[in-house]
Structures
1.
Amino acid sequence: MGVFVPCALLCLRSVFGLFGEGGHGPNPDRSTLLLRDLRGIKVKMEVFWAGVLWTLTIWLYLIIGLIMIPAMFGFSLGISEAYMTLLVKTLEWATLKMQKAQRDEQSLKKVASNGLILREDGSMVKELEELRRSRPKPPVGGDFTLSDCFYFSRRGIESIVEDEVTQRFSSEELVSWNLLTRTNNDFQYISLKLTLVYGLGIFVRYCILMPLRITLACIGLTWLVIGTSAVGVLPNWRLKFWISEWVHVICYRICARGLSATICYHNRENKPRKGGICVANHTSPIDIVILCNDAGYAMVGQVHGGLMGVLQRAMVRACPHIWFERAEMKDRHLVTKRLKDHVNDKTKLPILIFPEGTCVNNTSVMMFKKGSFEIGATIYPVAIKYDPKFGDAFWNSSKYSMVSYLLRMMTSWALVCNVWYLPAMHQKEEENAVQFANRVKSAIAHQGGLLDLQWDGGLKRAKVKESFKEEQQKRYSSMVVGDDSSGHSD
Amino acid sequence: MGSSSSRINSIPDAQQLMQETGFSAAHIVRLHERFESLDTERRGELSQETVNFASFVRILAHFRPAERSRGSRGGAQQELANCTSRKLQFAFQLYDQDRDGKISREELLQVLRAMLGIQVTEEQLQSIVERAIQEADLDGDDAISFDEFKKSLAKVNVDHKMSTGFLR
């Protein structure tokens, strides 16, 4: 990159030199004047372009020196810490101002949650019995009353207005605004100072931070492709393994700086080891960058085309990852076998899997698919929790493409997250894969402060299975007909 | 900042809906967002029964918590959707699907079949319906009218049971 600039300057000089020293024509005075003017313009333009190129060079050297090199070698110069402290102070100040304004307006609604409705989640049995309280209870069997419909219609309407599952597939709403346009829901004009800070924030984020981050991300990705391909050329010595891991971590660190990510790892003694499977909750593709900053993992996924495909092919040259063709993914046995083979080879890196199968908005953990828990390897659970104040990390794939998602990430304040490594878990004798998966899921949810849901993340796109409806019907029928099982399904 | 005021203006008939139903502007905006997220095919209406946004809000208005009676407002003011009698009417219409003002035996059977599915036999269904009609039918016409419906639910706290706690 440092070589490019002087070359460009030389090219410019020669191009402008072509406007050479013109001869003297028939009208010497006028043409000399014209030539003098042209030369003057030429010199000015040269100076201008030279200035631009020098600025770019300085910019690049600054980035390399102040951000890339510390990132590569894992130490910090304190610039991002200073930025984060300033940011936290600003957001706290803004929150206080807004709270004061709300108190002044005497808005008496004390909102505990961000939802639209306050739910009273009583069980069906309890609520129906309450509705029937005024009637004499029949001696035997169940009972039906016309008032039963109240319970169902109310619960139905509540779910239509806001249900527990689909809200996980859209970004979390903030209790108090964090000065980003995109999270502005019902926040109103409060004071001039706040508006100024908001405006300044927009300028800083879009004009200063975004170009910086884009540069870093491009450098990081290019380095990854070049570095891993270069390592791939080396023969299979132990050295290759160390170099490959080093290259991977460096590039991911640069990419993390490209998102202004502040990551805090907890319990690093539980870090995943070779021959195991690392499972984590999934919020966005950035999870991979977050986790790989600290250790090397073998990835699993579908083969993509385009830029992703280039990345995948490059990475595989340096160390073994598991990429499946689309057709192969349907074959459960093939998938299991390949994963098992990888796990049994003790020299290969731990596999990174996201068992939810889809991105969820980081307020809850949805059902874990049992495939990775059937392999019989050691499971290393990891919990990832992003702080929504600084930026929303969730990738809503139905709303944003990958590119616009990345641009949104690069124009947020920062990315702050906590990563907890949980102690390794093994499948117990008496539990099957599904129970094991649920146990791991609860541990992750508990550690990350997330809600543990039983619902399948696939409900993002698919419809609910009929069996759930039948379960509800069964429960209601036992209240209506009583528990005598003389009339079960015909 | 202050975008909710610009958003409410982009929703058709918003002011009229607010007056009719008693929802605040913030509520209407959020319900509109929800309506659009449910309307995945962007037809402007939900389900095969073509519920557009206005009907959506009007139905939901029945479930707002009932306000204390404002005393003398004078004259025949328009009843709000969430008053007790309108809530009862809504529940009545859940059963009375052909809107003839009476819940017939057949209608009750249909509703119960939908609620219970294959979990009960036909005989059990018939006996349940029989008992229900006998209890509620006071004038012996083998169907439940709205007044009989109201009487049988006299002891139930309708306002509380048919209200959803809307926040903000």
2.
Amino acid sequence: MAGKPKLHYFNGRGRMECIRWLLAAAGVEFEEKFIEQPEDLDKLRNDGSLMFQQVPMVEIDGMKLVQTRAILNYIATKYNLYGKDMKERALIDMYSEGVEDLGEMIMHLPLCPPDQKDAKIAQIKERTTNRYFPAFEKVLKNHGQDYLVGNKLSKADIHLVELVYYVEEMDPSLLANFPLLKGLKARVSSLPAVKKFLQPGSQRKPPMDEKNLEEAKRIFRIK
Amino acid sequence: MAGKPKLHYFNGRGRMECIRWLLAAAGVEFEEKFIEQPEDLDKLRNDGSLMFQQVPMVEIDGMKLVQTRAILNYIATKYNLYGKDMKERALIDMYSEGVEDLGEMIMHLPLCPPDQKDAKIAQIKERTTNRYFPAFEKVLKNHGQDYLVGNKLSKADIHLVELLYYVEELDPSLLANFPLLKQIQLYPPRQGRRVARSWAPVTAQTTLGTIFFGREQPADR
């Protein structure tokens, strides 16, 4: 059996951060090989390590997996964070995809042209308050349980709590009317593995700043 | 046990078509309730039938599932099109997501502003020929089996074959240098003919525009 999973990405959140969260929450130690120059990415491509020439790529259990969802689903299955049967998995997928839709909007914000940024932020806040947060608050309210699906921690809870942190970074007031989401955030954050990940010095990555954005553009050759 | 799955969407491909393909390939009969007016969509939203106010939505086994991947994964699991273990599932997911990335580009083409269309088509052709088709051809070449994963039909094969038909619609010559892909499209012949559909491509200006985009921006659905 191979060693720890090895994550190939640049040193920033991007599309790898949700994978870091999931591994961390599962209590799995992992290594990171940071892409720092465009040439590092070229090398991975020329080695044939990237099926579609893209990262994230995670080396795990003898595989070189690409595509964020493929990686997340594998980790979730391996560490029992994917529900107990196919109906629970369907709910977990449905919730995770909703989180991903909003998360994608937030992730792309640094790349948004300056003249469109305010409108984009307004749209994100509107969606958060009127579409996504109410949907998840309703799930928790309806069953009154501690976790979204099957009364047990799953990838859906981890993805949602990660998202709540990002929304809070943007505007803490957005959580105001969602007590059950706040409760879920507190509950998941206090799990030992997650608590450790939230502390300084962990492999959790900070928000993207100008320098980090320039680095990503340089590595991925984005104009 | 409820009856046939019931698909809620407008009468066009969009994000529902891959679900239709998968059900059809699995031999599952399904019903469709077409959204024809903005009011139909409003009704579904007000009923609380759409978790995130969006379609596709599929009523299946007592659930009202939204989010294309959640629906696809459930159907694939239920009808044994998702591999035999988690490693096979990982490969199926990886391949399916690659198909989806290219499929998304093709799906958005009708919504592309006219002055950007040629560049977009060129990008699609380039990605098809240099990134996606070679990747799948290589998988088939390496193991020499009839299907992408585990020598057995899976959702990955169905999604890929559906994509091949769309690429062919765009430009048949793109398949020229990929003999193994051409073979998977046709093999086995009976299944290939059953799942082939000759729907007209979506025209965004008509139904889709009226129903979804009313007062919203095209990219916001």
